[in-house]
Amino acid sequence: MKKILIVLTGLLILLPLPSAHANSVVRITSMAHQTFTGEFRNDELAQKLTPSGELGLLVYTPRVKNTTWVIDAALIDEVIAMTGDYTLATEAAPIGKEIAAAWLEQLRQITNGQEVVALAYGNPDVSLAKRLAPSELRNYYSIGKSQLEAALGRTVRSEPNGGWSKGKSSLSNPLIKAYGDNRKALTRLSRVVDVPELALLRAQLSRLLSPQLDKDSSEFYSYSARTAVDAVTRKLRINNGRYQITTTNVDLPVTVINEFDSDVTVNILMMPNNSRVLVNSFENVTIPARSKKQLEMGVSVVAPGETTVGVLITDVAGNEIVPESTLTLKATVIDSRVTWFTTGAAILLLLAGVAQSFRRVRRRVA
């Protein structure tokens, strides 16, 4: 019996410490609250950040040693935006400025000296993101880490294979396609435009893949994303236009607009839908930041009539960057060869008429 007690005592000494001494994990995540155009859908986030709110209860608490904080930087970016003069999509007055500032300061204090893990930006369903765009998922992890480090003012970990992401997205197939279309539009634009605004919007699309979005919120934010993407792609454009042409050869003004904060160098491809006109394209056109540049499009009229010219802005490799524009050319000029032909035909008809009249006169005289 004594030997059995000695053995049991030894086993108890070798057993791991109770769970109270093990590392605890606190997850700071939430569904999106800010639209892709900047305003907040409502003031729900402010309520969550109060000491008694969903997110407040996580940070307004006694400090526990050996805690690992798993944080979505997209949520922290929303909190930071709320510390300024933010606006709501409703007519209500914002109430969260001081609440957000206090919560953010408390987060920095309670995580100081603790392990912090950055999730992929926007906390997307990792398996879905990996299936749709693995390269984009790597970007989400990279931005998640850099944005969180900037917000907390310290180094954090990023562990794509650490299993920190939880949950599955219920995004419908039409909205998955919408996500893909938006992502591709921004990817094309980023080939020639390198500005923080574009990189952040591209990263924010990850929020559409969040497991925390319900059906109504998925539709709301997908529409918001489409609006924002359309607006940003229109910052580089050639406006549609109509031209009346009355001479065989003419130079028509075409204006390229660049509303981004950086210079853009592109090719411009002109594609007539018929052979009534010949037009020239342009290569290596540089449009300075926040400016317009007027080009002279040479047009040679082959035949009168209407021609639609598709205008593509492409990169140096010929890849389309933004949606196609349309120019409509209506030529009323008559080619010289047609003029000579019709004039000659008229003369022949006149001579034939004169000859006919002469024969009639001769018959009457006879």
Can you give a write-up of this model?
By secondary structure, the chain is of the alpha/beta class. It has 11 helices and 12 strands. The N and C termini lie far apart (160 Å). The model is unreliable at 1-22 (pLDDT under 50).
Termini separation comes to: 160 Å
Largest sheet: 5 strands, mixed
Radius of gyration: 34 Å
Please give the domain count.
Answer: 2
- Our count of helices gives 11
Query: Strand percentage, roughly?
Result: 15-25%
Mean pLDDT: 89
Low-confidence stretches: 1-22
Q: Major sheet: order of its strands?
A: 5-12-11-7-9
Shape: elongated
Helix content: 40-55%
Can you count the beta strands? Answer: 12
Features:
single chain; 366 residues; alpha/beta; Immunoglobulin-like; 2 domains; 5-stranded mixed sheet; 4-stranded antiparallel sheet; 11 helices; 21% strand; elongated
